[in-house]
Amino acid sequence: MNHPTPVKPSRSRPALALTSLFFAAALAACGGGKSTEPDNAAAPTPNANEPVLENPTPAPAPSLPVGDTPAATPSLPPAQQLPSGVDMSNPGVAVKVTAATASSSTNDGSNASKAIDGVATTRWESGRTDNEWIQFDFGAKTSLGYLKLVWENAYGKEYALEASDDGATWYQLRYVTNAKGGTEEFFNLNANVRYVRLRGVARGTQYGYSLFEVEFKSPGSDNSLPVLATSAEKFPPANSPLAAAPAVQDPLETVQFSLPDGTLVTRFGMVGRSRHARERGEDWNEIGYGVNETVDANGKPVDKGPGAHLNWVANYFKNRTWGVEFIDNSRVAGVTKPSIIVNQYYQQKQKGGGHSFVRRFDTTGVTGFGWMSPGDLLDDTTYSVNDAVCPVVPKPPQKALARPTSGYNNVIGANDGCSVVFDDYPAHSQLVADGNGVLVPNGVRVNARSLKAGDVIEFTGSFFSTRAAMDAVGDNGAVRYYTNELTYVVGTGLRPWYGVQPRLMNEPLPAETLSGGIGSVSYDYADNAQYIFQQPHNNIGMQNMQRFVEGRRWIHTNLTTGEHTEANNDKNNDGVGLQGPRFNQSSCFGCHINNGRGVAPAVVNQRLDTMAVRTAALDAGGKQIPHPTYGLGVQMNAMTNGKPQDWGMAVRVAGFDTKTVTLADGTAVELRKPKVSFDGPTPAAFSLRSAQPMIGMGLLEAIPDAEILSRVRTTADADGVKGTANYGYDPETGAVKLGRYGWKASKVSLRHQTASAALLDMSVTTPVYPSRDCLAGPANCKTGPAAKGLTEDQLVLMTRYLRLLAVPAQRSLTSGFPKGVSPISYLDVNPAQVAAGAKVFDTLKCSTCHVTSIQTGEGSEMAETRKQTIKPYTDLLLHDMGTGLADTLTEGQATGSMWRTPALWGIGYTELVAASKSVPVGYLHDSRARTLTEAILWHDGEGAASRRRFEAISKADRDALLAFLKSL
Question: How many other CB atoms are found less than 10 A from the CB of residue 783?
Answer without folding.
Answer: 10
